[in-house]
TrEMBL record:
Protein name: Amidase
Top-rank EC class of the record's enzyme: hydrolase
Taxonomic lineage from the root: Bacteria, Bacillati, Actinomycetota, Actinomycetes, Kitasatosporales
Limits of the Amidase domain: 46-465
Taxonomic source organism: Streptomyces auratus AGR0001
SUPFAM superfamilies referenced in this protein's UniProt entry, alphabetically: Amidase signature (AS) enzymes
Keyword tags: Hydrolase
Length: 495
């Protein structure tokens, strides 16, 4: 059934009341880069403001596991010297954050785990690329233990809270990165996405989250991550900022197993997508568990579909043939947990669910894992058949609004899996396929909690998805909304 483009284009049941200031100056990644290049602000001032905001919110939002305060200020001073000397780079002097599964030289990589971890000797390839573009890494953001769940809670660091409502999760596993951006602590951050771990917190934090094509951003020092299902992606308030960070972070190390051709993401953000054929899908992949769709989510995503139709796209309901794609996901995901668990200095500190997943990964290794990987091309062909008659697949990002803190954290392994699948059934198949997806803000629940819609495409479709997301942003203006308590506009950031 096609979407009636003559209907109202509302994107949620009831928008959240905006308490913070309207879109402020020097709040976005691209805007900060421009202001630094034009001499309107110094890196020292921006980084100092960032560190002050982090310190002021650690007791409430709790977005960061590690803060590089002294090192970041020293690097900002050096960036100011380079700027004064006339040097220009895409992000020279701009503060950003990375997730705590990403190596930063001199810092431990605990990936949500408790215990003492040794500092890393070298930057990950993606951090090397951020630094080469001039970015200042202010810290490493919280993630749930080994990135397994759509919440960011644990005994190693406490609870990371959603800036839109501190009683609720920002999602996971890149919840710290999402919370840091949504709260206005940094203009953009990197997360990782193995089953929706960028897109889910983007949806639940009113952000743009991009899961790029497998290998678009290097996972080195790992040739691939979690048996190829996990990739690195940006979180930001605007499509332009997410695309800029994607451009800067993209590229490969010679040891990477996946090396897709280069794209120009930020250029795509300024390009009209043309008239597209869009399939609207409500069906989740088969998992033999209940996955009821919350009515507020259906209303919000229907609103996005109506907006797309009003913008001139052809939108109708159609469903991909997922088959039994879940049978290929579980061996890869649990094997990845086992590989990461082997790096933990004291495995006795791991959550019981993590130890269970690692055991499952060892049981499903060998022939089962090889078979799971061998059927990937067949799955791509079957599910990709949708992209003959259609250009883009539109789905909810999640099936529910963000749960309250603690809802999932204390469940046993099986009940956690059931609850997780019920809340987040739409994202993970694209990790098996290795294809790109973009989560965009879709509106708010009746309780004022953010909701997301997912734009999905075939291999190497990031430019098309980014162009479409930017067109939606121009119409819906989601980036002008801020959560309660967002920092006041700072027109006069000192130099």
């Amino acid at each position: 059934m096609s979407v009636d483009e003559s209907q109202d284009s509302e994107t949620g049941a009831a928008p959240a009341r905006h308490i913070g200031a309207p879109a402020g100056e020097l709040e976005g990644l691209a805007e900060q880069a421009r202001a630094l290049a034009e001499g309107r602000v110094t890196s020292t001032a921006l980084v100092r403001r960032t560190l002050e905001r982090i310190a002021a919110t650690q007791g409430t939002v709790n977005a960061f596991r590690r803060v590089r305060a002294e090192a970041a200020m020293a690097e900002a001073a050096e960036a100011d010297r380079r700027l004064a000397a006339g040097e220009r780079l895409p992000l020279l002097g701009v503060p950003v954050a990375v997730k705590d599964d990403t190596d930063v030289a001199g810092e431990p990589t605990a990936f949500g785990c408790a215990g003492e971890f040794p500092p890393k000797e070298r930057d990950a390839e993606v951090v090397r690329r951020l630094r080469a573009a001039g970015a200042i890494i202010v810290g490493k953001t919280n993630a749930c233990e080994l990135g397994q769940w759509p919440f960011t809670e644990g005994p190693a660091f406490g609870n990371t809270c959603n800036p839109w409502n501190l009683a609720h999760t920002p999602g996971g596993s890149s919840g710290g990165s999402a919370a840091a951006v949504a709260a206005g602590l940094v203009p953009a951050a990197l997360g990782t996405d193995g089953a929706g771990s960028v897109r889910i917190p983007a949806a639940w934090s009113h952000l743009v989250g991009i899961k790029p094509q497998r290998g678009r951003i290097s996972t080195w020092p790992d040739p691939e991550s979690f048996q190829g299902i996990t990739g690195i992606g940006p979180l930001a308030r605007t499509v332009e900022d997410a695309a800029l960070l994607l451009d800067v972070a993209s590229g490969n190390h010679e040891g990477d197993l996946h090396r897709p051709p280069a794209i120009a993401a930020r250029e795509a953000a300024g390009r009209d997508p043309g008239r597209l054929r869009i399939a609207l899908s409500w069906k989740a992949a088969l998992t033999f568990t209940r996955k009821p769709l919350h009515p507020d989510v259906r209303a919000a995503v229907t609103g996005v579909a109506r907006t797309l139709a009003r913008l001139g796209h052809f939108v109708e309901e159609a469903e991909p043939d997922y088959g039994l794609v879940g049978l290929a996901f579980v061996p890869r995901a649990t094997a990845g947990v086992g590989e990461w668990a082997d790096r933990v200095p004291d495995r006795s500190l791991l959550d019981r669910r993590t130890r269970g997943a690692a055991r499952m990964g060892r049981l499903l290794g060998g022939p089962v894992l090889r078979r799971a990987r061998a059927v990937e091309r067949r799955q791509q062909s079957r599910i990709g058949a949708l992209f003959g008659p259609y250009d883009v697949l539109l789905t909810p990002t999640t099936a529910t609004p963000p749960p309250r803190i603690g809802t999932l954290a204390k469940l046993n392994g099986w009940r956690t899996d059931q609850a997780m699948i019920a809340a987040c059934p739409y994202a993970w198949p694209w990790n098996v396929l290795g294809w790109p997806g973009v989560s965009v803000p879709a509106g708010f629940s009746a309780d004022g909690l953010p909701l997301g819609a997912q734009l999905l495409g075939p291999a190497h479709a990031e430019p098309l998805l980014i162009s479409l997301a930017a067109q939606l942003q121009d119409d819906l203006r989601w980036h002008e909304r801020r959560p309660p308590g967002h920092p006041e506009r700072l027109d006069g950031v000192p130099r």
